[in-house]
Amino acid sequence: MIRVAFQTLRARWVSFLGTVVALVLGVAQVAAMGLLVTTAFDLPDRPVERFAGAGTVVRPKSDGWNPAHHDLGVRSPEAARGLSPELRDRVAATGETVVDRAFYAQLRGGPEDQVGHPWPVARFGGYRLTDGAAPASDGQIVVPSDQARTGDEVTVLTASTVRKYTVSGTVAPVGYEDAVFFSEAEAARLSPRMDSLVALGPAEAVRDAVGERAEVLTGQDRHKADASEAEDRETLDNTITLVPVMASVAGTTAIFVVASTFAFAVVQRRREVALLRAVGATPKQVRKMVRNEALLVGGAAAAVGTVLGLFGAQLLADMLISMGVSPDWFTVTPSLHWTVLAPLAAAFLVGLLVSVGGAAAAARRAGSIQPVEALREAAVDDTGVTPGRALLGAVALLGGVGWTAWIATGSPVTVLSPTVYVVSLMVPVLAAAVLAPLAVGPLARLLMWPWRRANGPTAMLVRQSALTARRRTAATAAPVLLTVGLAFSLLAATDSLGAARDSGLQNRIVSDYALAPDDTPGISTEVVDRVAEVPGVKIAAPLLTTVYWKDEDRYDENDGLVVDPEALKRTMDLKVVEGSLDDLDENSMAVADLWHMDVGSTQTVLMADGSTQKLKVAAVYEALRGEDVAYLPPRFADTALFARDGLSRRAYITLDEGTDRQAATAAIREAVEGSGATFMTRDELVASESAYARHLNEVRQRSTAVIIMLFCFIAILNTLLMATADRRRDLAVLRTAGATPRQVLRFFVAESLLVSAIGVVLALAATAVNLAGLWGALFQLFGTTPIVVPYAVVTGVVVVSTLLAVLGTVLPVGAALRARAVQLIGARE
């Protein structure tokens, strides 16, 4: 039957056009995304930056600490503590040794990611003086030549101070960082932690001196000490997390479209399959023919899609780079390496499997066609759905509603996990697509009801055409349903979740005013002290640190906020579920309920400065994943300089009763002017905080929605082209009955509008199920919260989908109208 399959493909290539396009696009997506993932796991060596001129670098050793499992900026306990003076002395005995420190230091108005170093390490990173001299005192600095000139007096923001320094010299800028260089003594005062050592003695002697106390880096390994290494890892982690989600959603959509178009192709060829049965073909031979067609189509489409994916991977990478997900140097280069060949081979096999698997149901249906059906003159279908499809649709519907109900009532935190929730949104949409043939009849009657008394035959013909060919109507409405349903569900879920987080944050903050960073990564302690001196003002500025729990041979880290207990109660409304914030003292802490610690229990905690503390759990509060922190007493403020950068990410301000509000706020604004902090109301803080917190989630979900919409837009166009191009007989009947070309075109356009409307209505029904589950989950997590619908974007998706459906109808009809009616009949027969 392979020869017969090849001949039918040649004769009925239009019937398989939609399948070919869907497969090509699906395989291209799988290939491109697979290339991105394998490339991210096997990156080329990046050049050494800060220590390119150093032979040997010694840095803290962190056995068992995989930075890929932790957030950017979180140090291992060893890295937070830094190298010891004793180890420095041992390394110094092998030869000249230079201490390196890296800390927050930003020129006023300079880049937010500016960093401070002691001047002696500058030479190892390629810095050379272009003017002036090295810092000769603690009040002098060296800066890049594009930011100041020698002799200038500049303000430098650090974690502890806002101080003026004199520029003693300038260096040429480098591409990998913006640095400010201090004297050795000043750098040690600002950052007591020793991050690394540059050893100029023999490497083997250095290794012997260090032993197992630290890690010795030489050659390419020196890049591990570069700041860009951690930044690249963070962005690549985002890529590796996002791409599989996008691939699963896009792949599922592709499989559904392929299966639908194969089934549609069999429906279109019902009479000719029956003719084969009439001349002696057995059901087994017919099924084999359809499977062979799928194999031929799948092989050709998979090959084309693989090549397209190879060259389209960089386009996808560029899109992720523009969204801030992947690093700007991330490239996919065609080669014969396994990282290229493996995903391409996998994508090709996926294309074949999707093609053959998608045709399986169509092959069974083709084998069941009886010879007597060759006598049929019209493809009338009273039910539009087979028992198997009805069962699958019922299971999908029950599964979708059940899954959504479980999210709403049993596991509301699922909506906070984009990886799981994005995929779950597809279930009701796909269930609606499977059951579409059952809904075509009622929806066609409902949507055409306003035109039941319309003059002329067009409305009646459109209605009856949809009712007598429900499978065709459902197949052509499916891409519209998928496009609108998935886009609507994804975008509404993203916006609603963001609004709910805003509401939750607003309810949790009870202070009237706040300080937030102003083009800086945080607020220094000196600025907080200035505001605290304003009469009638109380300020709470939590310092971000890290606390560690020893779990056998590894450490678990969690965020900690160092804050005065009284200030915490005055500015934050934590939902305490056990214990009381009144019991907080210098030897206790408040923890999130997610940590499963009992009030009154004593926990052994390793702090970032290397000290071990025993803290009593005074209170347990309710928190969401990602917002769970330990609130620690003020005596741990110094650990923030070891764990992070020693800056407050925000500060909360309240005014004493009877304080002149206008005078106090004016004094606060004056105190923070030019300090890298901005004064704002609580509502303004909530808006800025929520925009930052939900950025990555929005990027994940919106980028997934963009890829789905692009795929589905093309599916709409090619499915309508395929469906309309195969209806030459219908067009001929209309022409021979006396219809003018304009009337014929009007009929087909009206039918495509009805098909689009049916798809949109089904999409709205599926989205309603998704949003009902989302509302229930958000209600449990945040209380009463609105469902936010991006009406403008959704309306745009609906309009574009409808226009593509009309375009997919007008193009083949317009081409066919140029032929005479008898030619159309002959072509069809």
Give your account of this protein's structure:
This protein is of the alpha+beta class and about 850 residues long. The protein has 4 domains: about 1-45 and about 245-375, no CATH class; about 55-225, no CATH class; about 380-505 and about 695-829, no CATH class; about 510-690, no CATH class. About 55% of the residues lie in helices and about 15% in strands. Strands 14, 15, 16, 17, 18, 19 and 20 form a 7-stranded mixed β-sheet that branches. Helix 11 runs parallel beside helix 24 (about 740-780), helix 13 (about 425-435) runs antiparallel to helix 16 and helix 23 (about 730-735) runs antiparallel to helix 26 (about 820-829). The model is unreliable at about 820-829 (pLDDT under 50).
Strand content: 5-15%
Largest sheet: 7 strands, mixed
Our count of helices gives 26
Q: How would you describe the shape? A: elongated
The separation of the N and C termini measures: 23 Å
Low-confidence stretches: 821-829
Percent in helix: 40-55%
Question: How many separate structural domains?
Answer: 4
The radius of gyration is 33 Å
List the helices and strands and how they pair.
Blueprint: H1 2-11, H2 17-41, E1 56-60, H3 77-81, H4 85-92, E2 97-100, E3 103-107, E4 115-118, E5 129-132, E6 140-144, E7 153-158, E8 162-171, E9 179-182, H5 184-190, E10 196-199, H6 203-210, E11 214-217, H7 227-268, H8 270-278, H9 283-322, H10 338-367, H11 387-409, H12 418-424, H13 426-434, H14 436-448, H15 458-468, H16 470-508, E12 513-517, H17 525-532, E13 537-540, E14 543-551, E15 554-562, H18 565-571, E16 576-579, E17 588-592, E18 602-607, E19 612-621, E20 630-632, H19 639-643, E21 651-655, H20 661-672, E22 677-681, H21 682-693, H22 695-725, H23 728-736, H24 741-782, H25 791-816, H26 821-828
Parallel strand pairs: 4-9, 6-8, 15-20, 17-19
Antiparallel strand pairs: 1-10, 1-11, 2-10, 3-4, 3-7, 5-8, 6-9, 7-8, 12-21, 12-22, 13-21, 14-15, 14-18, 16-19, 18-19
Helix pairs in contact: 1-9, 2-7, 2-9, 2-10, 2-22, 7-10, 7-12, 7-16, 7-22, 9-10, 11-13, 11-24, 13-16, 13-24, 14-15, 14-16, 14-24, 15-24, 16-21, 16-22, 16-24, 16-25, 22-25, 23-26, 24-25
